[in-house]
Design brief:
The chain is built from 18 helices and ten strands. It is α/β, with parallel strands linked by helices. The chain has four domains: about 180 residues, no CATH class; about 60 residues, no CATH class; about 70 residues, no CATH class; about 120 residues. The strands form four sheets. It has a four-stranded mixed beta sheet. A two-stranded antiparallel sheet has the order 1-2. It has a two-stranded antiparallel ribbon with strand order 7-8. Strand 1 and strand 2 form a beta hairpin. The radius of gyration is 32 Å and the shape is elongated.
């Protein structure tokens, strides 16, 4: 079809595209065969990709000429995110993709004509950007041509993995040394970027996200795969009415079994004065009721056992089972935990020898630590959400000043806030201070330099508890 739009402005042509898209509705679809519909779908994808590539290059031009800075006083990313209702990440990706098309002209032209898709072009430019700086323009042009040819048979994910092959063809005499250097750089970067986060989603689940270097992730993957394979083998004996778990669900179950096996064997070091395990708090009456329900469900002589999958701490308050982080537990799950649990009674607000060792020893005992974890539920400094296991047991009246190791003289503080609260040997020092109210709630008073009135502050978790 002859191009008859050359005399139109870009704004007019975009308006024409808008009008064409309005006309392309399902109501006017008049195709005679399935083959024609499939052909239309492929052609539409190609046209959409050409439009994407053009948009990316337009944005790259806006960035290069600093148009947004001159007109709106903001970066191109900030302006685009606001004007087009994109996230900053989406805006940056569009701009960077356009910059790649501008830098590598052959790829940009192939994207404009539809020879490669916009996603393929983005993958190709990312590979070309990794080429050694000493490659001359002829080698880079050769690399562009090779990658465009590869795009005829490879998708974007496959194209991104061709960096090593490209260097091997363009500079075979240096490929081994370059590959070794690349792997070393990637190993250092992977180590620096390692992380693991566990975040409560507020709906009964914990979101797990992380990144590990390959050599560390590989044995972890094999452990998960081994437990998942065990689960798969056991599916044959499963209840036929139960839904078959997906592969990802089996991996999640495998992780839970791995943790459970680790707990049962007591392989982990102590954390917060005890081995790592689930701690559930509920009232004594609820404990008896749940235990009776569990016995009724599982039959006689099945409650209790030599190994503890969790610890249930009974207190004199509250009728709902909660974890150490304050999350509620479904009754059915609580009954299952009670079938194989240690029972640790905690009595708060009354005389109990186990909760007071006076001056006989400086460090807290395991029972005192358990009571402390239950009462404070983590660092008591307002705004801090460090869990009990990562906190120190802080003596309110210091041990060196005659303070006792007793529940009424102890609070949980994370290492950072422990350093802030720890009293000075100089009583006139303007520091943060802590007092414990009769109801067991910690009050934090700021120094005068922060608040001349030194109004006491308490953690939000205690406000919630008080309302309940």
């Amino acid at each position: 079809m002859k191009n008859s739009f050359g005399h139109h402005s870009d704004q007019d042509l975009v308006a024409v595209l808008d009008g064409v898209l309005d006309a392309l509705t399902d109501e006017r679809l008049r195709l005679e065969s399935p083959q024609q519909r499939l052909g239309l779908a492929v052609a539409a994808v190609r046209v959409a990709s050409r439009v994407d590539a053009w948009v990316q290059q337009v944005l790259a031009g806006v960035e290069a000429d600093e148009v947004a800075v001159r007109v709106h006083g903001t970066s191109t990313t900030t302006w685009l995110a606001d004007a087009a209702r994109l996230t900053p990440r989406e805006a940056r990706r569009l701009i960077r993709a356009g910059e790649g098309l501008t830098k590598f002209g052959l790829v940009g032209e192939a994207a404009r004509t539809g020879e490669v898709s916009a996603t393929q072009a983005e993958a190709i430019t990312s590979v070309l950007a990794e080429l050694p700086d000493e490659f001359d323009s002829a080698q880079v042009a050769q690399g562009e041509a090779m990658m465009i040819a590869f795009a005829h048979t490879h998708n974007s994910a496959e194209l991104r993995r061709l960096t090593h092959h490209l260097v091997e063809v363009l500079s075979p005499e240096t490929v081994e040394a370059r590959e070794a250097g690349r792997l070393e750089r990637e190993a250092r970067l992977a180590h620096a970027r390692r992380f693991l986060t566990l975040t409560d989603d507020g709906h009964g689940s914990v979101l797990i996200r992380g990144s590990l270097p390959v050599v560390d992730a590989d044995p972890f993957r094999k452990l998960i795969d081994s437990y998942a394979a065990q689960i798969t083998r056991g599916l044959e004996a499963a209840d036929p009415l139960q839904a078959t778990p997906s592969a990802s669900q089996r991996r999640a179950d495998a992780l839970c079994r791995l943790v459970e096996r680790h707990q049962q064997a007591s392989l982990a070091p102590c954390l917060g004065g005890d081995r790592p395990r689930l701690v559930v708090t509920l009232s004594y009456d609820s404990l008896l009721r749940q235990a009776r329900d569990a016995r009724a469900e599982r039959g006689p002589n099945r409650i209790g056992g030599p190994e503890a999958a969790g610890t249930v701490a009974g207190s004199d308050g509250g009728a709902v089972g909660t974890t150490g982080t304050g999350q509620g537990i479904a009754p059915s799950v609580l009954r299952r935990l009670l079938c194989d649990a240690d029972i640790l009674p905690i009595i708060l607000g009354g005389p109990s020898e186990v909760l007071d060792v006076g001056r006989t020893q400086r460090l807290v005992t395991a029972p005192i630590r358990a009571a402390l974890n239950h009462r404070d539920q983590g660092c008591v400094f307002p705004g801090c959400n460090n869990p009990p296991e990562t906190c120190h047991a802080h003596h309110i009246v210091p041990w060196w000043n005659g303070g006792t190791t007793a529940l009424h003289n102890l609070v949980l503080l994370c290492p950072h806030h422990h350093a802030i609260i720890e009293p000075s040997h100089n009583p006139t020092t303007d520091r943060w201070t802590l007092t414990l109210r009769p109801d067991g709630i910690s009050e934090i008073r700021p120094p005068r330099r922060v608040d001349p009135h030194q109004k006491p502050r308490i953690h939000a978790r205690f406000l919630t508890r008080r309302r309940n």
